[in-house]
Hints:
Order of helices and strands: HHEEEEHEHEEEHEHE
Structural class: alpha/beta
Distance between the termini: 34 Å
Shape: globular
Largest sheet: 4 strands, parallel
Amino acid sequence: MATNPVDSLPNADRVREALHKCEMVVVSDIYGHTDTVACADIVLPSTGWGEKDGTVTNSERRVSRQRALRGPPGEARADWWAVCEVAKRLGWGEAFGYADASEINEVGEYLANIVAENDLPQKPFVIHQFTSRMVRNRDAILVRPELATIFHIDGHGTKTLKKGVYKSLLPREEFYTGFKLFFDEDTGLMTPLEVRDELARVPAMISYQ
Length: 209
């Protein structure tokens, strides 16, 4: 992924030989014909630089924002998506999880029916999210009167970074928001007054970890 080792590494013949000895070789690339692709059992079409959306961390550990210039062509998919799908098929889906609105609506319907059938008061329904990709098709998530749906938003880092992530992931007004604070990972723990006064919307739920 993101490299062509049979071409770029020293002693290419040894690299090619090593790949041929592997039980299975999966290559993700934007080109269909490279020296490494020729050694692959499975080729996954990837997105190019101008088709990626997210962040890039360079060798100096600098993180920069990258926005796509165009959508992916054909069946090309982002690297993170390919890794998640391969992991699922290898039995490690829980460690690479994300949810689609259809899955969230299915769970929401199940819980709402329990509340309605037992004449219970409204119950919290918490959806954890700290990147835009974690919840796909979020606009399709349904509002249910039996549930107080809360988008629980977090992110490690400085106060400025956390406030930015929170603002970027705010859901529609009919949903509640939550905010997570980390004792160890946060750079400068926000105070309760800062959470109340400095966030783009006052959260209905605050948690500490």
